[in-house]
Amino acid sequence: MKTDMRGGAPAEDEATDRLEERLAGRFAIELGRAERDYPALRAGRLRTPEPRRRGIWPRLAVSVTTIGVLAALVVVGVGLAWQPAAPPVAPARSGAVLGADGIPDQIDGQHVYRLAAQGDWQDLSGSFLLGAYAVDAPIPCAPPLPSAQPQGSSENAFVPQCGTVELVPQAQDNSEWFFNLAPRGLDVLTKWLNGPAIVMRVHTHDPGASGCSADQKTACEAAVVVEAVVWSGSNSPSPTPTDAVLAADGIPAQIGGEHVYRLSEALPNGSGSFLLGGYPVNYPISCPSARPLPTAEADLVGQCGGTHLASSAGQSPGSGLFTLAPRGSDLLTPWLGGPAVVIRAHTHDAAAASCSADTKAACEAAVVVESVVWPEVPTQIAGERVYRAADQASFPTSGSFLLGGPVTMPEFMPPCPMPIDHTTAENDLIPYCYWEAIDGIHVAPKVDALANLSGRIVVARVHIGDAEAASCPISIQLQCKTAVVVEEVVWTGGAASSSPNPNPTPQTTPNSASSEAIGPAATDQIGPDGVPITLDGQPVYRAANLPAKPIFFLGGKLTSDTACAAPATPAAQPSACGYWMIDGVRAVGTSNVVEPYLTGQAIVAQVEVGRALAICPGGSCTKDTYVILSIVWPLPPVATPPAPLTP
Amino acid sequence: MRVITQPLDGNQKDRAAAGRLSRAMPAAPTPEWVATLHVHGPLLLAAARAITRDEAEAEDLVQTTFERALRAAPTIRDSRAIRAWLLTVQTREALRVVRRLRRTLRLDPEVHELPIGGPDASESIELDEALGRLSRPIRAAVVLHHMVGLSVRETADALGVTENTAKGRLKTGLARLRELLDED
User: Whole domain around residue A215: which residue ranges?
Assistant: First the structure.
C-alpha cells in the first residue's frame, strides 16, 4: 500500500514498504474474520429498530379515541346547560378540555380550581392550579388599617394590596372581583392583564408569611402567591419561554419580556422575585465538622459546600462561583453539571428576619431558588405523560414510561478496580464509580443510550423492575428492582449532537496546547532533567507551575501511586490501583494511554483538568482532577541502520 | 409548560404540530440506507477490533456506530464517503476519553484472538503484539491509514486532528512498529 508519507532514506522507505505490506496482509486476515463473524453480529445486535411512528400510532389511536369520547361527553354536558349567549366550547390549543368559562378543567391530570371554589383550595398545602382572568381595573380601596408595627418585608411581600392586579372568574365579568393576591409574584401576570383566560400555579400559606406581624398574619397566610402561568387561552404571548433567544453565554437574555440577570450584575434589592441565569455546579470539598445552626441561618446561609452557579460552562473551581441558599437549592440537583438554567429566585427572604445580628446581612442577601423556569422539559409527548424525578414515588412498576430531564454525568473518573465480587446483574443495574443521570436519577449502566447527550434535555423511554433484578443478591434486590433502565431516547433538546456530519472538518481545540505535538521542534528548549521546556512551541508545565488552563502539557518523571490498597487479585498491575503521577502531580490515566514501559521515564503528557467527583476509591476527592489524554513525548528512538562495513 | 400532542381533529394547526413532533423524532431509516450500512459492517468490525483490541468493546462500537448511522440523514451518495464517515463516527467514539475510562482497568493481561494456523501465523502474532504496544490514538491512525486504506486527510478527520498531527502520529507509529519488529 502506497502512502503519502515519503521522504526518508531509501533503506527507511524499503522498511516502510515492507511494514505496510505486513499491515495490509494482517488486516486482510482480520477483514476475512470480520466478514465471517458479521452475520451473527448483525442478527444479534444490529437489528434495524422498528420505525417509531408505527409504535406510536397504535397508542395514539387509543389516546385519540379516549380524548374524543371525553370531548364528546363535555360537549354534550355543556349543550344541556346551553345559554344562548355563552360561547361554544372548543378544544384549546394544547388539547385541554375547556369549561364554559373558557378555562380548562384539568391540565395534565391536575384539577384546575376556580375562584368561586375558594373553600376547596384556600387551605391546600403545596401548589395547585387556579384558573381565572387577570385584570388591572382599580377599584376604590379602603385605606389600610393602622398597624401597631411598621410594615416589614414580609408584609410587603404577602399582604394583598388592593387597586393593583385582580382576578375575575369570567371574561368581561366585573361582578366578582378577587384581589387576595400576594404582591410577590404579581409581576408574572403583567402581560396577561385584560387578556385571555389563564391557569396559574399558585399556593397559599407561604412559609414567608410566618414573618408577618401578628395582626397581619391571617392576611399573609391566606394570600395567594402566583408562581407561574402554565396555560393561556391564546397563542400569543406564549407563557412558555420556548422562544427564548440565547445570549453569547448560552443563557436567554430575557424570558417573556422579563430580564434574566447574570451573576455579574447587581441583583434586584426588592422583595419580589427575579430571573437569574447560570450553570449549576456542585464541587464537593472537604468540610469541617458542621456545627448546628439556627433554622434561618441553615436555610439561607449554610456552612460549607453546597450548590453554586457559574457564569459559563466548565468554569473552574475557585474562580468566583455564586453560592445559593441551601433552601430551594435541591431544585437544581437534576441540573448539576448540566446545561445552563434560568431560575426564579428572590433575596430578602422572610426567614432572614430571624437571623442573628452577625449573619443578618448574609441572610438578607441569600439567593433562594423558587423554581427552574428554563430550559423546559416536555410534560407530554404524543399524549403520554413525561415523568420527572419528583414523580419517582409514582413511577409505573410495570411496562415502560417516559422520563424527562437534563442528562448529566461526570466528565472523568479515576481508575476504579474492577469489582470482582459483583454479579453481572449488579454490574448491569447499579452504577459503580461512574454514572449517567436523567433529571438527577442515575440510570442502569446496562444500556449506554446517553452517550454524547451530556448537558442536553431528553425524554427517554425507561422501565424499572428489570427482569435481571431477580439475579441480584438479596441484600440489594430492592436497589436492583428500582433501577431505571433506559430503553431508548425518544426526544432531545438543547445543543447539537457531537456526532460528525458526513463531511467532517478538522476540529480545533479551544486552548493553547495543540492536541498532539510531534516532538521537540528545532526551537524547543530542553530542561536540565531532559524534559522539554517547550514542545512544538507550546509550554510544558511542571508541578511547580501548574497553569489555570483546561488542557496543557505536563512534563516530568512518570511514576505510579501505589499508596492505595492492593486489589484482591495478585495478578493486578500497579496501574489497576491508584493514580499515575507526573512530576509528582497525581493524574488519571488508563493502560490504553499510559503504557507501563514508560514508568520511571521522563515524559510529557497532554492533560485535561476535570471536575472533582463525589465518589472516589479510598474516599478522597480533590477539586481538580488531571486526566492524561495522551503521551506526546518522548518519541520512540528510530532504529538507525548499522554503519557500512569498511573493507 | 410545553405540551407536545398528537393531532386530534386533523386541522391544519394540529397537523403542523404533528409535523414538528415527527421532525423532533428521527425518521425511520430506509431499507436502502440500512443495506448500505451493512455493506460496510465487516470493515467497521475489523477496524474496531484492530483499534480496541477487545472483542466486546469492538462489538459495542460497531453497534453504536450503526445506531447513529441509522439516525443520520442518508445524504451521502458516494460510497467511499460513507465508509470514511462511518469510520470517523466509530473512531471518535473509540477515542473518547470518558468511554475509555469507563472500561475499567483489567486485572489480567489482554488476551487477543489470532487466526489459527497458516504460514504467517507467527508473523501475525508478532505484528499483533507490536500493534498492541502502541497507544490507542497512534494505533488508530496506523489502522485507518495503513490497514483500512483511508487517506491521510480522511485519517485526520476521523481522529479529529489536523493533517500534520495525523502525519506525525503515522510517522511515530511506523517508527515504533519498526523498532518493535526489528526491521532493518
Answer: 93-140+150-232
